[in-house]
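Ticket #4471: structure export looks truncated?
Reporter: QA, pipeline team
Priority: medium

Steps to reproduce: submit the single chain below to the structure queue and open the exported record.
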Amino acid sequence: MNFTEPAALAYLVIYLAALVVAIWKRKTFPLQESIMVVVIVGFGFTALVHWLFPVSTGAPSPAPVSTSELTFTVLYLAGIAALLVFPRPMPEEWKGDFVKKRLVDTVFKLSFFVVVPLAALRLIWQTPWQSLGFRAGNIEAIWLPTLLLCLVFGAFNLLAGSSAAPVRKGQYNAGQIGLGFALALAWNLLEVGLVEEFFFRAFLQGRLTSFLGSPLSGVLIASLLFGLAHAPGIYLRKGDQHGPLGEKPSLLNAILYTILVLSPTGWFMGLLYWRTQSLLAPILVHAVVDSVAHLPLFIEGVMIHRS
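Actual output as written to the record:
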């Protein structure tokens, strides 16, 4: 891996520029928490993945990306970015219903983040299923490291994540936590795990790696896009009472947070996908970690009462 590659340098410049702005905005931006997450998640967990997961053997070599395929990828990404700005169309009475609103979001994401690009790659460019991450990989070699990564990252999110603060404060009992986690995990395996890992790892990172001829460049650019894709949601949802940006964050703070904090999450997830050449481990890890963060949301959303 060569860190002097143009794409890697471009990412570094963007990241450092965002860091400078965040330092300037430190009175309203959670700089200390962001730096802690970058050090632990960005560097620590990436190093852990590098150590735990061997390079996949027997995986298909990345197929060359044609000009038409790259053009489709860029245009489709631009279309997705535009879609994320607008609210999901749904009946007015559904907007206050947690389950129905999540259902609309999940159907929307599965359709546009998975079904459409997958169908295009399979039907137009005949991309093999295995090249899109739909392979088990070496289960014997990855199941224990995957479990360990889920436990370590899940515990970190529980102990340090702002969204899990109500759990740490003892606002819920064991029954609420157990049922809430089970519901969140079942939902996140689809809405977060499959949707985001297929789109950002198998689709985007796979195309970028082949086009740029470098796993490092593919991982970094896909990580940046992964982070930035969350900015409209953070801003338009008006933040999160328990989240690091608080309620009603500015658009600038939302963008800074996605670059500085969320894109480094893509480092280790991107490396995990590259090392395993399978969506299995990234989907499981992503779903477990987000389920810990989403515990209060699901407990309160489906009104799991104390037993």
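Status: closed, not a bug. The export was complete when the record was re-opened. Leaving a note from the reviewer for reference: The radius of gyration is 19 Å.
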